[in-house]
């Protein structure tokens, strides 16, 4: 998911996407430990996606607090 697509989401949608990505990350970590993951670079990509989504969520929260 690109930053542009992420910015179009609402805060609640971001929360659900973050939760889903973290669950996926946990599953990939478990599969990596058992040697079932062929594309280990996906772990890094998902971690970066989570960080990107959390940053955008924080920006939106600050903007909403500033407006209120």
TrEMBL record:
GO terms for biological process: translation. It comes from the Bacteria. Keywords: Ribonucleoprotein, Ribosomal protein. One of its GO terms (molecular function) is structural constituent of ribosome. Pfam families: Ribosomal_L29 (PF00831). Belongs to the universal ribosomal protein uL29 family. This is Large ribosomal subunit protein uL29. The gene is rpmC.
